[in-house]
Write a structure and sequence with these properties.
about 170 residues, alpha/beta, Rossmann fold, 2 domains, 10 helices
Length: about 170
């Protein structure tokens, strides 16, 4: 199974030291060139945490950079023109729509567009829950990771509470 990730998902997972969960859950993470530029090229230039780990994942081949076809680029520009989202989110949505692959999105406007287009997506926090449900992390690791995630991205208290409730239902 593959999943498409936008910049925020990669950055946040790297910042909390959980990037490897993406490989364990999905085997391959597909990103666009814009996401690569934002996360790796700019991240390296600005000495951002997690860049080295992401570079290793690209070298190992489980994070794969996908070039967009002309039609996908056109769709991405149309999505951006509608306002509210960056190039990385727009390209990720265009790629997900054409390939019918689920994606990880955190941006409100990008999620609204994904719903409109009928795309399957989840947020970065839900990735942690999936890892918990799959037995890849313990309840304690899940709670610690969720707390760390809330330090690097906005996470509504209602969403956090629901994720914790669902994680509680998992048998050790």
């Amino acid at each position: 199974m593959s999943i498409i990730a936008d910049s925020s998902a990669l950055i946040c997972m790297a910042k909390i030291g959980r990037l490897e969960l993406l490989r364990k859950l999905y085997r391959r993470v597909v990103i666009t060139q814009s996401v690569h530029n934002e996360v790796l090229t700019e991240g390296k230039r600005l000495h951002k945490p997690g860049v080295e780990e992401m570079e290793k994942a690209v070298e190992a081949g489980w994070i794969k950079i996908s070039s967009l076809a002309t039609r996908q680029l056109h769709d991405a520009e149309m999505y951006r023109a509608s306002g509210g989202m960056g190039k990385g989110e727009a390209e990720s949505i265009a790629l997900a729509r054409s390939k019918r692959i689920p994606l990880i999105l955190d941006d409100k406007y990008a999620r609204e567009l994904a719903v409109t287009l009928g795309l399957n997506f989840l947020g970065t926090a839900a990735v942690l829950l999936e890892a918990r449900l799959a037995g890849l992390i313990s309840k304690k690791e899940f709670l610690e990771s969720l707390r760390e995630l809330a330090k690097v991205m906005w996470l509504s208290p209602e969403v956090a509470a629901e994720l914790m409730r669902l994680a509680e239902e998992v048998k050790e």
